[in-house]
Design a protein that fits this description.
Structural class: alpha/beta
Number of domains: 2
Strand content: 25-35%
CATH architecture of the largest domain: 3-Layer(aba) Sandwich
CATH superfamily of the largest domain: Zn peptidases
Shape: elongated
CATH topology of the largest domain: Aminopeptidase
Number of strands: 14
CATH class of the largest domain: Alpha Beta
Number of helices: 10
Radius of gyration: 24 Å
Bound molecules: zinc ion
Strand order of the largest sheet: 1-2-4-3-5-14-6-13
Distance between the termini: 28 Å
Largest sheet: 8 strands, mixed
Order of helices and strands: HHHEEEHEHEEEEHEEHEEHEHEH
C-alpha cells in the first residue's frame, strides 16, 4: 500500500535519513581520489555498490565509466542523471580523517560529492520504484577535468558509446558543487549555463639576427607583443558587445639568448564564448589579423584552435519543469537565479544531444569567508549532500511521475 503523504515529502525525509550513508560514501571516495582516465578503484566502488542495490550495471564505458539502470514498475521513458568521477593533481593538507590518502591527488572539484549524491539517489529511488515510471539511468563519467595528452574519453566518448541512445534518453540532469553559494542554496540558469571553450596555440615565426641589428631580422617577441594587444581589441571591439567572450593566453615562450633576436614565440591559451557564431567570427577575425600582420612585418603567425567543449545550455522547458518540481520542497529563496559563467564543463556534450538541466549546489558553510574549487583549501560543508540528494530524488522521481501521468516525455 502506498502511503498517503505526498511523494516529495517522503523523498525528502528519506534523503535526510540517508545522510550518514551518503557521507560515508563521500568520505571513502574523497580518501581515494584518482586522476582523469585512471578512475579504477572509483569505478569498482560504484559498480559494486550499484550491483548490490540490484541495478543493471555496465562498467568499462568510455574507459572507467559506469552506467546503471533502475527499472521502475510502470512503463515510461528513460531519464538520466550524470555524475563525474575524476580528481585533480593537487596536494591536500592531511588535516582531516577523510583527507586524501593519495599523495598529490585530491577531489578538489567536488566530484566525490557528485558521485555520493548519485549513489544515494540510486539507493533512495530503488525504494520508490513501485511508484515510478520508466527507467532511471545513472551515468558516472570519467575524465571530466580534461584528457591526458593523446587519450580519448569523457562525456563526448560516453555519448559516442551510446549512453544516451540505448535506449533513447528523454532528459538528463547534472549538478556541480558551488562554493560561492551557501549550503541550502541551489543556483540555476534558465538557458546558457557555461561557456564553450577552445584551446589555442599561436606560433610566431621571425628571423634571428644580432640583437644590436634588429633591422637584419624579424623580432618574434616584438610581434608577439603587438599581436597580444590587437587580439584583445578583437574581443572588445570585433564582436557584438552583448555576447561575452574571453581570450586568455596562459603561457608564452620564446627566444634563446639575451643578445639574439627571437625567431620563434609560442603562446598557448583559451577562447571562451556563449555562442558558437561568436566563436566562428572571432577566430575568422584573428586569422585575418594575423595574415595582415604577417604581410606587414615579414613574420609568419600560425594559429591552431581545438574546440574542447560546446556551450552548455539548459533546455528552457525542462528547466521550468525542474524548478516547479524543486519548488515543491525548496523555498523560493533557496532557488537562486544565476548568470552564466565563462567556465566550461563537458556535460555540454550530453546537453547538446538531449534536453538537459544542469544546476549548482551551494557548499559554503556558515562563517566560511570564501573558497574556490581546484584549490587545496576546498572543504565543502557536507550538509550539501542532503540538499543535493533531495534535489536529485525530487527531479528524477518528479519527471518519472510526470511521464506516467502525461505524454510530456513520450
Ligand atoms: Zn574541476
Ligand atoms: Zn568539476
Amino acid at each position: 500500500m502506498i502511503p498517503s503523504d505526498p511523494l516529495h515529502q517522503r523523498l525528502a525525509r528519506r534523503a535526510e535519513a540517508l545522510f550518514p550513508e551518503v557521507q560515508r560514501l563521500r568520505r571513502d571516495l574523497h580518501q581515494h581520489p584518482e586522476l582523469s582516465n585512471q578512475e579504477e578503484r572509483t569505478a569498482r566502488l560504484l559498480a559494486d555498490y550499484l550491483c548490490g542495490l540490484g541495478l543493471t550495471v555496465r562498467d568499462g564505458v568510455a574507459g572507467h565509466g559506469v552506467v546503471a539502470d533502475l527499472f521502475c514498475s510502470q512503463p515510461g521513458p528513460t531519464v538520466a542523471w550524470r555524475a563525474d568521477m575524476d580528481a585533480l593533481p593537487i596536494a591536500e593538507p592531511p588535516d582531516k580523517p577523510w583527507s586524501s590518502r593519495t599523495p598529490g591527488v585530491m577531489h578538489a572539484c567536488g566530484h566525490d560529492l557528485h558521485m555520493a549524491i548519485a549513489l544515494g539517489a540510486a539507493r533512495l529511488l530503488q525504494d520508490f520504484q513501485a511508484e515510478l515510471a520508466g527507467r532511471i539511468r545513472f551515468i558516472f563519467q570519467p575524465a571530466e577535468e580534461g584528457l591526458p595528452p593523446g587519450q580519448v574519453g569523457g562525456a563526448e566518448l560516453m555519448v559516442r558509446e551510446g549512453v544516451l541512445t540505448d535506449p533513447p534518453v528523454a532528459a538528463i540532469f547534472g549538478l556541480h558543487v558551488a562554493p560561492m553559494l551557501t549550503v541550502g542554496q541551489i543556483g540555476f540558469c534558465p538557458d546558457i549555463v557555461m561557456a564553450g571553450a577552445d584551446r589555442l596555440r599561436l606560433t610566431i615565426h621571425g628571423r634571428q639576427a644580432h640583437a644590436a641589428t634588429p633591422h637584419h631580422g624579424v623580432d618574434a617577441i616584438v610581434i608577439a607583443a603587438q599581436i597580444l594587444t590587437l587580439l584583445q581589441a578583437v574581443i572588445s571591439q570585433g564582436k557584438d558587445a552583448r555576447s561575452p567572450a574571453v581570450l586568455t593566453f596562459g603561457t608564452i615562450a620564446g627566444g634563446s639568448r639575451f643578445n639574439i633576436l627571437a625567431d620563434r614565440v609560442v603562446l598557448e591559451g583559451t577562447l571562451r564564448h556563449h555562442e558558437a557564431k561568436v566563436r566562428t567570427s572571432i577566430l575568422a577575425k584573428v586569422h585575418q589579423l594575423l595574415e595582415g600582420l604577417s604581410a606587414a612585418t615579414g613574420a609568419r603567425a600560425e594559429l591552431t584552435s581545438e574546440a574542447l567543449y560546446p556551450v552548455l545550455r539548459n533546455d528552457p522547458d525542462l528547466g521550468r519543469q525542474a524548478l516547479e518540481i524543486l519548488g515543491r520542497h525548496f523555498s523560493p529563496r533557496a532557488l537562486v537565479p544565476m548568470r552564466p559563467v565563462m567556465g566550461s564543463e563537458d556535460f555540454a556534450f550530453f546537453a547538446q544531444e538531449v534536453p538537459a538541466f544542469y544546476f549548482f549546489l551551494g557548499t559554503r558553510g556558515p562563517g566560511v569567508e570564501s573558497q574556490t574549487l581546484h584549490s587545496p583549501d576546498f572543504d565543502p560543508d557536507e550538509g550539501a549532500l542532503t540538499v543535493g540528494l533531495t534535489a536529485a530524488a525530487l527531479l528524477l522521481a518528479g519527471l518519472s511521475q510526470a511521464a506516467s501521468q502525461s505524454d510530456y516525455l513520450a
